[in-house]
Amino acid sequence: MSNRVVQGRMVTPEKLAELVEGESVLEAESIADADRDCPECGGDVITVGYMPSVTEFVNGYKCQECEWSADDREE
């Protein structure tokens, strides 16, 4: 598993998924570069796939520099 620095702290894939989701998750995949810039500050965005429940898989996105995060759920 790959750890990354997010807002000055080293995070695991599980911790990154928790930052995006706002609560604990069941499982998380490795962190990857999202190949996009943050819409708020222009910083680098990373992505992590995770399961918040046994019936759902979500791709989460988090800026490495600021508080911005999002997921691929349809609104």
Summarize the biggest pleated sheet: 5 strands, antiparallel
- Average pLDDT level: 95
Order of helices and strands: EEHEEEEE
Strand content: over 45%
Task: Please mark out the parts with pLDDT under 50 across 5 or more consecutive residues, or reply none.
Answer: none
Strand segment count? 7
Coarse structural class: mainly beta
Distance between the termini: 30 Å
In short:
This protein is mainly beta.
Topology of this structure?
Layout: E1 4-6, E2 9-11, H1 13-21, E3 27-28, E4 32-37, E5 44-53, E6 56-63, E7 69-71
Antiparallel strand pairs: 1-2, 3-5, 4-5, 5-6, 6-7
Tell me what the structure shows.
- This is Small CPxCG-related zinc finger protein.
- InterPro entries: DUF5795 (IPR043813).
- Pfam families: DUF5795.
- The protein is mainly beta and 75 residues long.
- It has one domain.
- It contains one helix and seven strands; from the N terminus they run ββαβββββ.
- The strands form two sheets. Strands 3, 4, 5, 6 and 7 form a five-stranded antiparallel β-sheet that branches. A two-stranded antiparallel sheet has the order 1-2.
- The mean pLDDT is 95.
Task: State the main characteristics.
single chain; 75 residues; mainly beta; two-stranded antiparallel sheet; 7 strands; Small CPxCG-related zinc finger protein; DUF5795
